[in-house]
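ARCHIVE RECORD
Type: protein–small molecule complex
Small molecule: zinc ion
Source of inputs: curated submission
Record status: active
Notes field left blank by submitter.
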Amino acid sequence: MENNCLACHAPLGKVMDRVFDTRFGIESPYVIAKCKDCNLEQTTPLPNQQGLNELYERYYNFSGERNTRYTQLRAKFINSFLYRIWLAIDGDISFHLARGTGSLLDVGCNEGRGLEFYQNHGFTAEGLELNSKAAEVARGKGFVVHGSTLEGFATEKKYDVVVLSNVLEHSLSPADMLRSIHRLLNPDGQVWISCPNSRSWLRSAFGRFWINWHVPFHVVHFSPDTLRAVLKTSQFEVVSMRQETPALWVSHSIIARLFAKPGQPTVQLRSALLVATLILLIRGMLFPLLWLGNLSKRGDCLVAVARKK
Ligand SMILES: [Zn+2]
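STRUCTURE (tokenized, with ligand):
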């Protein structure tokens, strides 16, 4: 393998080849590799940060996805009471039901959907968002949103909670990201993390089509053990780690399996009718399987809370 482990620089071994972008149709296959020393799984070969930034700019184009039927329906659902009931059943992977007090920083806050929940649930919430259009929407809702990277974020302020909801796996250096958060936290402050679980049974079931490979945007693929390890090296102590399997993620893996082709965008992932139908079927009929997966530590998503040491 041409790359070495991005965490410990040991050699990598191939785990799965010909993994392709099942969402946007970005060309060129990737390899999932595993460090022979620390077991961290990672995407290879990787673009550098600038290359990744260009890909984000091109494919994670916020304004390109505004006011589509899919996003309108999603916004309506999230603002309804039904959403809270849904989270209680399906699993709250973005901490939208968490209550507490103190200052909270949501890293990658997008248009501020999470900020509204955190603020309504007792926190003083701020965001960090690189996408200027998304940040502007969040500011329009009255939130303080910093347009900086986490590493470059210079402030005297300390936070009680930093949220990394599906963010850490995008980092070219998760340990550095966590160390930056460590500096931003008050003593006893917490980092709340959610990310895909590389030990998920859906990975085994869907192989290359597992939606959470999400190459090349997902740089690292954490297991409970490798997530614990990076938290430990970054001076955090794990308070809790649970597993969830969102029906949305299962439906995305199914759609990828049915429709995704290398080099082509999978437009069916944005079909509101198809996604909603699959979600209801999965949650209604497969719930024992989802529940067993979580219990046997092979759920699709890791949800961790860790305290600054
Ligand atoms: Zn390693």
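CURATOR ANNOTATION: The CA atoms of residues 48 and 172 lie 8 Å apart.
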